[in-house]
Task: structure prediction
Amino acid sequence: MLAFLKKHWFLILLAFIATLVVLAKIFLTKEKKVEAPPPYNKPLVEWNGVVPGQTNNEQVKEKLGEPETALPAEGDNIKFLYPRQGGGPEHEVIFEGATVALIKDRVLDGNISSFHKKYGPPEADFWGEHQKSGFKTYIWASKGVAVIAHSEEGLIYEVWYFQPMPLQQFLATWGRNLSSEPSEGGY
Amino acid sequence: MEKLILTPNIARELTTAYEQFVKFKKDEVDGLSFDEYQKLLVAYGELYFNTKNIQAVLRELAELADSGQESLPQAAVPNADQLKRLVEAHEEFLKQKDSRDTSWKKLQTTIVERRLKDLEAQQSVVYAAEKELAGVGAQETPTTPTRPRYPETPISSTRQPDEISGWSRQKEIENLQAVIEEANFPKGLSQEAARQLHQFLSLNKQEGRVLTSEDLRSRVQAILARLNIDQQTAVAQSQIGQITERVYQDQPQAAPVSQAFTKLPRPLRPQQPLETRGETKPAAGVSKETNHIYLALRGAPYWLQLARQLNPASWVGFGTKNGIPLESINNVLNAIERLKIEKPRVYAKDLPLLLAVQERVEQLLEAGKIIKEAEFYSAEEIEQALTQLDKAGVEISRLQINPQTEELEKEKESKESLLEKLAARRKQALEHVGLKQGLGELQQEATKLRQTVSSAAQIRLKQILANLGSGFGRFFSSAVRSTFGVAGRVTGGIAQSFGLGPSFSTAFSKIGSSLFGLGGSAGRIGASLLSRAIIGLTTLGGAEALPVVAAVAIGFGVLFALVFLVATIQHGVFLKETTSAPIIRESQFINLTKTADKTNIQSLPEQVTYTITISAKDKTLNNLRTREEFSVYSRGSPPQITATQHSVKTVLTPGEQDSFNFSVNLAPEYQDSVVTNTVTVIADVQDGPSGETISRAISIIIGNPPTGCFSFQTGWSSDFERAQVSEMIARIARSPAYMANLCKGGNVNLIRVNDNPGYGGEVRGKSNIYLYNRAFHREGGYIWQNLFYTLAHETGHVYGWRNPVEYIFFPTAVYGEPFLPTYTLTKSQDEDFAETIAVYVVRRAVPNLSGYNIINMDTTSPKHYQFAKNRIFGGFDGF
Result:
């Protein structure tokens, strides 16, 4: 018996710990009431008078004019393209239903330091589009802002505006293609 | 202007394509991405309907398609840009469509041919003979006659059935291969994938199963994943979906009614989980030494088909008490004998057939003894087994460890022991349904992977050493995450194999899943591991041996964690950016070899002798001449070496060769330089092209030539390769502006990796360029253009990282122009930026890149050209 205990002391120890854990789980766990998360009340961001989550299709046209191009977006959604003042890729206003959900402002200028001053340090940063040229996506999800900027020099490629939301929600929606590590192969 | 007439058919195609994108969530239709398709619609809209609104365009197109009337451009005067965009977009559309149509026609041809074969079969003499047999007295005849594969020598057919069958089978496989290749699956593997897929489809067809789209998709995924293990690249869902869709269109949507035998019940063994089948006792009367006949897996052999047609009822209980035993078979023999006596003319007419039938029936009688002892499994069970085989394959393929590391020998033994148990369980479960071949392939894959472990480990180590800062952090994070996660999952799987029950397995799977979600932080690992493990263990249920089981489980988990940590180290997981080197074809008609008596010289003066041999391959070469050039890349400005004029035979017949040598004296002013000699042979091929060319270059490193900010790091074991890279650096460095901006961020590290990942180079971070075998060797030999392109492209990425101002300006500068077509992988702005630099640099040396003529970049992609010239290369265009 003693020999058995000596030989298998580690397994027995593990078994003992596991037993304690199971018992603790059985006796100490209280059923928790699942409460609905409180509504995410954060001030909404604005871009040229357009507020994600509020402004609708017609209001966008009133504020920005007729879009240069209207394209089908993911799902049954639609996006309006508006020309950028300096030329180049257009700004995108993406709708969910009839309401603006995301704005991609093709900034192509400026430095992310201005966003740092305004919003503080970002909640998270991830690799996404333009990662091979050193650009990362810096996220202030609770502010409804994400900035794609160079990881060393801070130069801004574009800024996203959306309805403020928890970071995890952002990563599950607009940020679902972002990754904490540069993506493997594939491009 | 004919192309500009918008026909109802084109309108219908466009609207249908839209539905494919929107309703069915296709990534690509007719070779066009959604973005490209939208641009096409906008172009149509501008020209025909005076709108850019895609919804409006679609409405107009739908109306046009329904109206059946053609439409001419409504824009008052289409401007040049509108026309250009439309024509470009439409040409691309037609090109892709044509490509798809070719494949489709091929598919249709195969279908027609197969149907023709079926018709021929309907007329076969077997059918006639069976009718004769029925008339003579055979008591049971098939209600729906189907031609068996015999007789091997047909009487009324002009084609040999087996030839037709083999030919048709080959055509089907080729067609599947075309479909698979069309989905961008690597060509080297597509043939095997097509073969396996064909085998699967044939099995289903023979079994009369109605194949669902999900079944097919699952199978396609499994085959591609299994074949793709060595490639270490993910098989995209879009690839699987595309192949599934194409193949599924050609599959029968209902069981063929003509194959009566497929409806027959079989003596199935009692239904039970396959995993436990190995532990069941043999059925009564079946010894352990039973010869297993893999009827279900391998398809019904001819004698089985024949037996079913001769007497379906007899097959149900063939050789058993319940069925009609051997009587009906004997009846067939009797009927033939009676036919011989009573209707000698009929007998004589169909003599070959009847002899064949007689022979097969006799074989059938012998086979009956074996059949009596055979075990049968349903197609569903086999599918289940195959699925598990695939899972086992993935698990085993991941269980790689480094056999060269002594410290890990214990873990290796443990792992191999577990592997054996795993494999044994799988084997035990699977061999009863005849999957030995599958297991053999699996083991071969595992062996192959094991062999690559060593080189993979070396690559990883070099990567880590080359980028200690970020590399190790990422490595550690990735290794820990995948190690613990996979370990947990596999342990769960093994637990299930050991028959510990689903709750145990579920628990471990939860543990695995929990661990898989861990990041690279050790603290998070510990905390999350414990908490998730607790959650997992508490789901075990009330097993009495729970603590012991849990302890054993944790032990296994820890062990696997260690093993997988090692395994993960050895697998390249950092590779991010890939580059496909361009395909530069060698001459089909000329052989050219070139050697130098020395390629590495420390001090000068020195004489170098080159030897050149030219030969004709299959056709006579006329008007043979050579062209030679030297280039020198050096710290100073040594004089250019004057090329000599060589006299060669002007005509070479097939197999004939001409050889000559020449020497060059290198003076001390060439110290610390790279001297490259390129010889080009030009000939007019008899009954072939004129001006056929082939080139060979040799570089000689003298002393320590300058490499600018490029720094050779690890892996450079070949002086030749190093010299070649120096030569390419020299070519790129002809633009001082480019080099200055490229190098302003510090050294650019060059790491040579002896591996074949399927591409030539990659960039990690802002400083490390990895060059693989493909950058140096392609299609059996060194092709310097490959290296030139690869290096130029990769420096483009480094340039982009180090010069974000230029990168940000790029989309504005090239706005309105499509991405350069020469980059063959998924296009993006990142890649287009690097490709712009590469094409600008190499376009004169590599005028045809990836099938595109790029030498006229200034006219084909003027915005890209201007951006490169003015923003990147400071106006220099002397490459």
Summary: The two ends of chain B are 40 Å apart (CA to CA). The longest strand of chain B covers residues 621-634. Chain B touches chain A through 57 residues (CB under 8 Å). Chain B is about 55% helix and 10% strand.
